[in-house]
Amino acid sequence: MSSTNNIINDIISPNSVHLLHLPNPQSYKLPFRIVACGHYHCLSGYRVQRQGLNYRILIVTLNGKGQIVYRGQKVSLAAGHAFLLDCNEPHIYECVGDSWEIKWVRFEESAGIHYENIINEGKFETVVLQQPSLVEAQIDIVLEQVNRNSPTADLKMVEALCGALTALCEEKHVHDTLKISSAATKAVADTISYMNLHYSEELSINELAKQNHLTTYAFIRTFKRQTGLTPYEYLLKLRITKARMMLEQSDDSIHEISEKVGFNNVNNFIRKFKLLTNMTPLKYRQQNTDVY
Q: Taking the complete model, does pTM exceed 0.90, yes or no?
């Protein structure tokens, strides 16, 4: 897609708002310069396909459904979805179905200002706003100020846009944290299930970390945060628990039980058993198999 075949199908309802703005010369000292903004009630067939504009655009979906294609991603848009894109790069966004209500701001970033990089991190992902009204309120300030000749209008618009973009960054951080938390919870649950099945085998903490695509340090920290134990402590407790059951329910020797629960050295097994139960395996068996 080249800039010569950009396609704009502005199929919008008559009550839509499109406002252009000529920034004050002093605004070039500010982080942003707003050049246009609007409140669109897009109808079926609305479609923007373009590239080659030295702007950023922030779009928030209020109602209805839309779709964006950007950086190899095709993403559906619904109420509360917001995104920021670089208009230099090829992109398409459009109405899906009968209607798509959006509010938007198009702006220039000053040198050294990279909100788009901060939010998208070189990729692309929409932000699902938990409080879309906060971002919408900031865009409303831009819409209110854009045609005012007040010497502070540009300042107020930039302040509002900063607030909207900062809210996006905060919401993305919360979303990413929840994703990490969810992934970490699953990693620990999967590890516990694996330990329960393979406790009798030689298990390496480093290998368990690799299975969960984590560094050993991150794996140990995550595991302990969720269980209160390090992976080694959990595995040791699991093995000793299994050993206690075998001591109570079988006639296997201490040496046999030691091997069955994953210890290569019976003396080490006895030491660890005593550490967790305050008695030797033999003493434990005697106390728990006596007939009264």
A: no
